[in-house]
Each structure stands twice: as C-alpha cells, then as structure tokens.
Amino acid sequence: MISPLLHDDPHTVGPFRILARLGGGGMGTVYLGRSAAGRTVAVKTLHTRLAGDTTLRTRFRLETDAARVMGAVHGAAVVDADPQAPTPWLATEYVLGPPLDTAVEAGGPLPEPAVRALGAALAAGLEQLHRSEVVHRDLKPSNILVTAQGPRIIDFGIARAFGDEHLTNVGSAVGTPAFMSPEQAAGLEHAAAGDVFALAGVLIFAATGTGPFGGGAPTDLLYRVRFGEPDLGRVPESLRELLARCLAKDPAHRPSTGELHGALGGAAAAPGDRGGFAVLLPDAVLREIARRSDEVWREPPPRLAPPVPTEAPRADAAPAAGVSRRRLLAVAGGALLGGGVLGGAGWALFSGPSDNGGGGTKKDAVDRPKPPSALWSAGLWCPESGGEVMPVGRNLAMRAGIVLCGINAESGQSTWQANIADVWRSATDGTRLYALRDYQEDAAALAVCEVSQTDGQLGKPLAELAAFTGKEQYNQLLCVAGGTAYLVARAASGGRWYLVAADLGTGKERWRSPVDAPQSKGFPAALYGGVVGSRVVLCAYPASDTKFLRLSAYDKGSGKQAWAVSETFAGAPPTRLVADEHNLYLAADTLTARRLSDGGLEWLFGNGRDGEGSGGDQRRYGAPTLQDGVVYSVREDQGLLAVDALSGTLNWQEQGLSGRKSKRDVAPAVGKRYAYCVDDKGVRAVDLKSRKAVWTYASEPVVLTADAQGGRLYVRQEKRTLALPLA
Q1: What span, in angstroms and rounded, lies between the C-alpha atoms of 603 and 587?
Q2: Which of 20, 33, 51, 140 makes a 20 to 30 Å CA pair with 409?
Q3: What is the pLDDT of residue 171?
Q4: Nearest to 48 by CA among 88, 12, 11
Q5: CATH, domain range 100-296+318-342
Q6: Got the DSSP string for 396-459?
Q7: Which residues pair with 699 in a beta bridge?
Q8: Is 63 helix (H, G, I), strand (E, B) or coil?
C-alpha cells in the first residue's frame, strides 16, 4: 500500500526520485520511486544503521543477484542496484498487484482452478531459480504478488546458494515459521525441496485462507512444522494427495518443482498467456489490481512533517460494485500491460557520468588532456572470469553476475537477459549470439541454439547432435565461425570427449577429434579456443595441480590434430585466444610466440631481462593484446611495452612511469591514439607517439574491451560497467 514519506526519508535514491512508502520492516524500507524518464520502480533500501554490517551487505547483494536470476516473467525485473552504496539499494519494476495474503483477504480463498494456475506458475519460477543453484528460503503469501498475468515471486532477502553456510549460523532457524520446511525449522540445510514444502503451504493458504499448521506463537508453529501433521481438511480433494507429498517431513519424498508444475497443469499458467490468469481471479482481487494501477499515477501523498506524523490521506475508493466483470478484466489486463511502461520487462540501466569521473588523480597540467567523461554507466556486475564485452551486431552482450544480457551500445540500457550462467556455454560470431541448450532440460541430445536479441530466449536448435549428451554441464561452445560451431563435448556412449565441428546450416556433425576429459572441477576440457586461419586452437590445463598449459591445433576442414605442445605458465590462466595468421601469443614469465603451422617456438622475449624471473608464482608479463602487428603487454611494475609480432623485438617501452602497480591479469586495450592499461590508480592512457601516460581515469577495472568500430572503451568494474570514448 502507498503511504506518505516520513520527514527523514530520502528525497532520492540513486537516479530515482522517491515518491512514497510501500512498506518496511526491521531490515529496511521499500519506496515508490520514479526515474527522470518517467519509469516507476520499487526501491528497497537497507537501514542506514545496518549498512556497516558486512554480513547484511552480503545478503543484500545476494538478494540482488537472485532477483536478476528470477527475471521479469516470474519475479520483478531488476532495474538498477548498488549494494555497495553507503545505504545499499535495489530498484525493481513496480509490479501491479497485491500480495497473495491481501488478495485472499479481499476476495476470500481462491477457487481450485486459480490455485492450480497459481501453483503451476510458482513452481515454474522456483524451477528457474533452482537451475541457478539458488533457493528462496522465505516463500510465503506476502512475498507473492498477484497480477493479471500471473503471480510474481519477490523478496530474496534470505535466499542463498545451495550448500552455502556462510550466512546462516548452524542450528539457527531463519525464515517465517508458518511456512518453513521442517529442516529449516531445525536449523538444517534448506535446499530446493524446502522451497517445495513452503510452496505447498502457500497453496493451502490460497485455497483455505489459513496455513497448513495454523497460527499461534512462533515456537508452537516451529514444533508443529517439525513434528505435527498439516491440516488439509478444507483443501480441494483433488489437491490433497499432491500437497501432502509436498509436505513430507523427509525432503527426499517430496516431488520436484518440475513434477509439481506438471501435476498442477502447467499449461494453464504458461508465461505470456495474458489475461488467462485474470479470468480465474475473484472480482474483489481484480478490483484491487485495478485500484493499484490507478493509484500509482495519482499525486503522491505529501511528506509527513516532523516531529509528529500526520494521518495518511485516505486511500481512493475501489471501483464501484456495479462495474461489470468484463470491465474489471479489461482494467486489470490494462494494468498488466501498463506495467511494461511503469516497470518494463528486463533491466533499465541509466546513463550518466562515472561516480568518480577520474577525479581521484592529481590535476593535470593545463596543456595535457584530461580524462574523458563516461558516455554511460550501468550497474552491471562483472564476474571474476568471462566478463569480456562481446559485440553482437550493432549492440553488445556481456555477463552481469550470473546471467548473460544484451546491452544497447548507445545508451547502456539492457534489452534482454538470459539465464546462461556458465561462461563456456555461449559464443558469438560478431553478428549473432549462440548458446548450448540447458544441460538440465529433458532433451538428451547436445543442441546449439541462437539466442534471441529480443528476449534472450533460445530458439529452435540449429544443430542437434544425438551422438553427444546434452546433460553434461561442462560441454563447451568454443566459437562459431563461418556458419560452423566448434564444441568440446562428451559422447553419449562411452563417455569420451571430443572436439566437434557442427554445421549450423544442415544441423549435422562435420567431424570430431578426441580431446582430454575435464580435469578440474568448474572448468571444461578446453579453457578457451577459437578458429585462426585454417586452424582450430585449444588451450587447456591437463590437470588441476600443474603449472603448464596444453596447447593443440586441429585442421579446420578435417579435424585432424596438427600438433600439441605443453608450456609452463604462471599466474591466472588465460581466458582468450591472442593469435594472428602466423602465431599464437602467450604472456607469463616471458612473452612467447608459437607457430600455428607446427606449434614450434617462433620467438621468446624477456628471458633474463633485468634480473631473474618470477619464480613461477605470478606472471612478470601481463595478459597480451595484439593490434596491427604489435603485441602489447605490461611488464611487472615498469609499464607498457610493445613488441613486434613477427620478430619478437622490442619496439618501445613506456617512459616516465613510476609508483604504479600494474594489474597484469587485465589485458591492455588499444585505440588509434592511445593504448589503455590498468594499474592501482585506474585506467592509464598511454600516448602511442610520446609513449608516456597522459591521463588516468580513476576506477578498478576487471576487464577492458576496445570497440574500434563503435569508438568506445568498455571498462568493466566489479560492480559497474562504463563506456568511455576510445581515442
């Protein structure tokens, strides 16, 4: 419900103007907000007095990640967030619909068809969440919003990853007693089956108006949840057996979310069936949806003056009882469609200058260039690896936390998101984006699909390879080039691993060649690879406890292995292929070039220069970048150097640098006028003519990507992504 702001509530949070209060509790407050462009959002903030608690900050960040995973179909789409702000905040679309407990209070228990549709949709939403190995842990009627299209799951404040015990004390019960699972009530691990238990309780509430274990003191409820039997007497008979299974004390005896979805008649609540859910709702619930749709556009109530709050303005009356049901359905449906304007589907990321704007550096001399202002800045979290920006046509794709999303290159606004968590399961040819079908889906065959640039959904398979198992997590899509997808995949029979070429035109396998099986948990057999000229090149770690790379090359036409060598390597593993038609380039204790023709060492740079090597603990030479026949790399703390790619001789080294600590795991980016590298002060622009640093943009980049065609330098920090002009 919309209520007036208190005298000490903020006027703005992030880029949003705060209009009214939507709710609050012991941890934080939820506000109604609006952007400068007129987008209406719900803004959740952590109480300022709690902002210094590291554990609560971490929970707030995890809540943001979980909300992004849930997305706009089953939850409230994340618009923007800053969990690291002095007062952490999260902005989501404003969902037009009451909480389930309010809906039941307004219209009484829902009819059986509505309960079934509600349950099927909620089961589908939980299944999506669980596929990302996250559990909600606090599913209850007040955390489910009822809209004309279907229910939305919100409030992931105590959600966490499977098996993560860092945020919960052993033996403590965290959640809402009336809807806890027995294992959660006992302070034990609450996994996906625990969410199924809670969902059953929600459906019993929707069907009867009370929870499965009644009410009373929390201690009494916890006891009944653990040892008592649920009250199913008023539940429709056709649902009793199914819900009783969901409420089994032993998690192993409960159905999965997929089973539950099917048993409830999942087709009745299919996403996109606009209005299909609304026709099942009582008139009183439709009136409440319509009232909220009207209320959000009215003038917000005035802020309360200190020190004594005044009475909140009376809420507007609900639609008259004489309004026809057809009219109610139309208004409620319009409220849903209006949500696309109010809240939108997907993230809206707001342009603006960087938080620091490079202001952390000393004032440049009058005749020296100053750091540029950001073209846009977006709250896109960069993962620890695989955070490179990928051009896809005229726009971009990049990973934001644990999802892949499309970004408008001009504005920085997100246009779609896809639940493709693993870096190695997607690739682009520069025009289109491709991904492997989810390994948890029922289909057994390995399939390569195109990712829609409209909504992030996977299309029909372009290649479906029955000889390879689609249920293997570490199948890898290396790259797509010339209409062919190159994969590392496990055979459906025998369990052997192969490098596979699949024709995306015919959908058929072209060839296969044996490769090593995965050796390190969390990584596929090939850490990275790609097509260079007539070769397909792989780079892999053959075992998790070694400090060398296994390099191999295969004929692009036949798949026959051309060569394989091993090379010692220190520091973080490389994540991208740096090669031209002649050589493959690597940087660690030295810079090396290996011939693509036979894998032989073409040249080695840096051995014995200015003293001994690093001893193998970390790289002396930073991750390389190849541009116009020159290999760029930072060397220890002595700045940027440029080496001729054909001969391995030094072209030049940065001059006048002192007191900077280079970040050698971030590869440089190169424009026409400047080369950009990263140190402990930020992004340093080195003039390619004078070979001296001319400005520093204060930031902490994880990845730099130069887009010469678009004229932008993409700076991916842990918590934000910036676009700077590329010079």
Answers
A1: 12
A2: 33
A3: 31
A4: 88
A5: 1.10.510.10
A6: EEEEETTEEEEE-TTT--EEEEE----GGGEEE-SS-EEEEPPTTSS--EEEEEEEPTTT--EE
A7: none
A8: helix
What are the residues whose beta carbons fall under 8 Å from the beta carbon of 296, sequence distance 6 or more?
2, 32, 40, 94, 96, 342
Taking alpha carbons only, the member of 611, 613, 584, 586 closest to residue 600 is 584
Q: In the predicted model, what is the mean pLDDT of residues 361-374?
A: 64
Cβ-based neighbours of 513, under 8 Å, separated by 6 or more: 498, 499, 554, 559, 560, 561
**Would the pLDDT of 324 be above 80?**
no
Question: Among 368-372, 543-547, 579-583, where is mean pLDDT lowest?
Answer: 543-547
| Those residues with Cβ within 8 angstroms of residue 257's Cβ, 6 or more apart along the chain or in another chain | 123, 124, 126, 127, 130, 192, 195, 196, 199
Q: What percent of the chain has pLDDT over 90?
A: 47
The whole-angstrom separation of Cα 541 and Cα 573 is 9
Cβ(96)–Cβ(339) under 8 Å? Answer: yes
| Residue of 253, 226, 228, 229 whose CA lies nearest to 242 | 253
Question: What's the CA gap between 656 and 637, in Å, rounded?
Answer: 12
pLDDT at 319 over 70: no
Cα 148 to its chain centre, rounded Å, is: 27
Which token pair is 182?
Answer: 């027995």
Q: Over the stretch 484-538, which tens digit does the pLDDT of each residue have?
A: 999 999 999 988 999 999 999 999 999 999 998 876 555 666 778 899 999 999 9
Amino acid at 373: S
Phi, psi of 463 (to 5 degrees): -145, 125
Given this model, what pLDDT does residue 429 score? 93
> Amino acid identity of 18?
I
Note the Cα 47 to chain centre separation in Å: 25
User: 497-504 — which CB contacts under 8 Å span 24+ positions?
Assistant: 497/525, 498/468, 499/526, 499/536, 499/538, 499/554, 499/559, 500/465, 500/468, 501/536, 501/556, 501/559, 502/448, 502/463, 502/465, 503/463, 504/434, 504/448, 504/462, 504/463, 504/480
Cα distance between residue 339 and residue 201, in whole Å: 29
Higher per-residue confidence, 339 vs 297: 297
- Which residues are 161's β-sheet partners? 134
- CA–CA separation, 282 vs 261, rounded Å? 23
Structural domain boundaries of the chain? 100-296+318-342
User: Is there a contact between 185 and 197 (Cβ–Cβ < 8 Å)?
Assistant: no
Helices 112-131 and 54-74, axial angle in degrees (round to 10): 120
- Whether the CB-CB separation of 645 and 593 falls below 8 Å is answered with yes
User: Which among 271, 277, 286 has a CA at the least distance from the CA of 345?
Assistant: 271
Alpha-carbon gap, residue 432 to 504, rounded angstroms:
12
Task: Measure the CA–CA gap between 172 and 181, rounded to whole angstroms.
Answer: 13
Rg, Å, the chain Cα set: 28
Give tens-digit pLDDT for 14-73: 999 999 998 876 678 999 999 888 889 999 998 888 888 888 888 888 888 888 888 888
